[in-house]
Give the backbone structure.
Amino acid sequence: MNNLEVTLRAATPADEPFLFDLRRATMDEHLARAGESTDERAHWARLRYRYNDAYIVCCGSERLGLFKFFRDADEWTIVQIQILLAWQGRGIAAHLLHEFLKQADGAGVPVKLSVLKGNRAIGLYERFGFQVVNSTDTSWQMRRG
């Protein structure tokens, strides 16, 4: 990660414009390819889904992205990982996954996520041991553990 000091902080309403722009920048291409809606209302609905589980990925005071997840007693779920395009390729998502999965392993729980078909993040998830367990027309459901 090139000595980046990455931290997480809870998202606040003041982060919503940043999160909306982040979502458009990182997801429009994948959503369009999958035939999913890229309109403003769909983005806001997805952004607000489980908003209390949203964490801003930071380096110092700079916002780099979003990591949204939740922990149930018997299974943990990664909802979204989105990193600004300018910060992609620096190992930030891999670092977040590594730390989250280390905690899940310590708790003895599996982790699940969903990823749009064609999203290059699939390779990252596979490197961390996720396997496809189900699919829809547009996405794969993956599980580890």
